[in-house]
Write a structure and sequence with these properties.
150 residues, alpha+beta, seven-stranded mixed beta sheet, 3 helices, 7 strands, 26% helix, 37% strand
Length: 150
């Protein structure tokens, strides 16, 4: 998988369409969750895009501190269902962490993780903070990574 980082204005119309299609495919259809994915935050984010055979198969968006949470953050972590057995989720998350460290020069990252993915995020050093809560009807937990401690 090849990973590319782009600002919102650098995305082509086709890339934006395919990103929104993948997010909808997983977060709305597969997870049977009706929510407003297009939230006016994509314009502030850096977009971490995973390509395989010229097709978008993995994606995250990252924010500097203050643009989403008070800390830098990673969101919309998604891998196409047919590509999940290859470890691309780990690759795209590592690239997202690296992006925040290198581009934003930040070491603390907060995420709102779906609870069932707790072990996945813990394997990258994230630590649960606070209690479980519902976000769009799905159980979530806040997690923080401090890369200064790593």
């Amino acid at each position: 998988m090849q990973v590319i980082i782009k600002t919102f204005s650098e995305l082509t119309l086709n890339e934006l369409y395919k990103i929104l299609q993948l997010r909808s495919e997983v977060f709305v259809v597969e997870q049977d969750c009706i929510y407003q994915d297009i939230d006016d935050k994509d314009q502030k984010a850096l977009h971490i895009i995973g390509f395989k055979n010229n097709k978008i198969i993995a994606y995250t968006r990252v924010f500097k501190s203050g643009d989403y949470f008070s800390l830098a953050s990673i969101g919309r972590v998604v891998v196409k269902k047919t590509e999940r057995t290859y470890g691309y989720g780990h690759v795209i998350l590592k690239e997202s962490i690296k992006c925040i460290q290198q581009i934003f020069k930040e070491n603390k990252i907060k995420i709102s993780a779906q609870t069932y993915l707790k072990k996945f995020y813990e394997s990258h050093g994230f630590i649960k903070t606070g209690e479980e809560y519902l976000e769009d009807g799905i159980p979530h937990i806040a997690m923080i990574l401090n890369t200064e401690d790593s």
